[in-house]
Specification:
This protein is mainly α and 509 residues long. It has 24 helices and 3 strands.
Amino acid sequence: MVTPTRFPLLARNALACALLPVLLALPAPVWLPGASVAHAQPAGLPDLGESSADELSPRLERRLGEAIMAQSLTDPDYIDDPDISQYLNTMASNLSAHAPSDTQQIHVFPVRDASVNAFAMPGGFIGINAGLVVAAQSESELAGVMAHEIGHVVQRHVARGLVQQKQTSIIMVAALLAALVAARGNSQAPEAAMAFGQAAAIDAQLGFSREAEREADRTGFQMLSASGYDVNGMATFFGRLMALSSVNERTSTSFTRTHPLSIERMSDMQNRARSLSTGAAPPPSPPDFYFVRAKLRVLQAASGQDTIDAIRFLESRAMEATTGIEKAAAYYGVGVGYLRRRDYAKAQEAYDKATSGARDHVMLAGLAIDIATAQGNADKALTLSRAARERWPQQISLAFDYADALQRTGRHSDAVVFLNEQISRYPDQPRFRQMLATSYGGLQQPVAERRAMAEFYSRTGAMSAAVELLTQARGMSKDFYEQSQIDAQLRELQRRVKEENDMLKRFKS
């Protein structure tokens, strides 16, 4: 929904060298979708040491995760969907608030992969495959898997595994980071598409021990119970995956291969579930779960035929649904599928069926806005997005929709005011700054346009591009005070770029 930027990233040469300590020490701020921005200070080259699990400190582990996530927007497997991200991270926040010990901030991101899997990366970043959400039968099942992954983070299994297996794992991480450095300045670089695939490979290579898996189970159960989810969710979902794997190994899920499920583990989970169960009926899954699951069934499609298959499945699910909300969610998914295929008439028909009986949901409101936008009816999209924001003011996707509608109707002055408000409210969302640059461009304000895009680039790791744009803005400005502000920004960015380049030079040989 955002107008493509006119400013390409600056290219850098790939460095075929071991870059783990380099990127761990990078001082550049990194944007993390849905999480706070970490402003790390220069710390020199870290010493990974020999054997202690504490040698990869939480701060350095976080920097490693940030380095990987910095390329998330260029990885085609990353699902950039505010509704899905907000749902997953709200769940993660609820669970981690009940962690048995202090833990670093958790950030969950969706991955466009139909396989049933989830993986924990360094620094509290957790990838959830679309296929896993689609396979879950209830929100408690999804929460059970997420709690297990958070358990790995709480117990620092990733950091311990990297240190203990550094002869193999560190080599893999270094190769990944070398590709990321090549992609940092070039969003079109093929290496940019390797980020999540290699991150998942590192997760598999670590091969958590049986004790680590049990430890994650126990920690997860505590969080699951304290957060109000059905404690049977974890055991039920894992049991179904284990049964699927035992019936035919060729159909075993990715999760069972990367997180081996033994009879002993399953028995322990079932016993814990029984001991923690209150005997009350499990809470019903909220509407959000069904809408997110339906959308991900469509978004995981890798081809046009896969999209058609998803539409057909959801149409049959709508006919069989036993509750109104499940029927509405299924028709919502059908609408998303047809919108993806640019069949706007059928998308509208599916929306009408989903909203029959006066049913409403924030994601249905978003679908109506998307249909209007796709049909070129910007005025209708603006009216719908304004009303939806009044109804659901906390939904960040609607803020993007409203700003986009303002821009499409030529209301750039209003968009600038609104976008600056959103930047103050959501400082960790760089897309608002990118949109702000678009509106400044529409208002013929090239200095402000470049400054906004420079801020966008600096928050997404493209420091050299940010310096170039600020330099251009400095040359265009005639205002002394504005020039002074830009000079201060340039000095800070140039300092960071120089430190980065100096560190990289040490590893070129």
